[in-house]
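F.,

This is the one I mentioned.
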């Protein structure tokens, strides 16, 4: 259910993992770009007998919003009643994606805070403080 932020709410990567582990209808959508999936990696849900859906929120290299995002999500088999957890690099693009899916009629859209790589550390590197990688959740190189 949408609220003043335009989507259901935020969850940590650990909360997303726990829900994906126990709810067979819960779906993880990685909204990053093809180069990010290939070069940085993707969540590995194979131990849950699931796979993340990789659907770009923005099209590389121009980074314009994917005008067919909601259609692509539907084409991937996600039903409007399914709980949807959206993940990007740091938890920013996934907010916009959650808002768009909510507007398109998806009722349970969550932003995964800190995303796959999380914020920059003191050396300017991602993947060390918070996020899917830093929390040592399963992932694989693209």
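My design for it:
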């Amino acid at each position: 259910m949408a609220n003043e932020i335009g989507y259901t709410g935020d969850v940590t990567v650990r909360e997303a993992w726990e829900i994906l582990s126990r709810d067979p209808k819960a779906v993880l959508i990685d909204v990053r770009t093809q180069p990010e999936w290939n070069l940085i990696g993707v969540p590995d849900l194979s131990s849950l007998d699931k796979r993340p859906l990789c659907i770009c929120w923005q099209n590389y290299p121009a980074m314009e919003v994917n005008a067919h995002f909601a259609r692509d999500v539907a084409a991937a088999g996600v039903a409007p009643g399914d709980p949807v957890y959206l993940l990007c690099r740091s938890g920013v693009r996934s907010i916009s994606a959650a808002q768009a899916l909510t507007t398109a009629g998806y009722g349970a859209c969550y932003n995964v805070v800190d995303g796959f790589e999380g914020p920059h550390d003191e050396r300017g590197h991602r993947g060390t403080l918070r996020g899917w990688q830093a929390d040592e959740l399963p992932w694989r190189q693209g």
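The chain has one domain: 9-140.

Talk soon.
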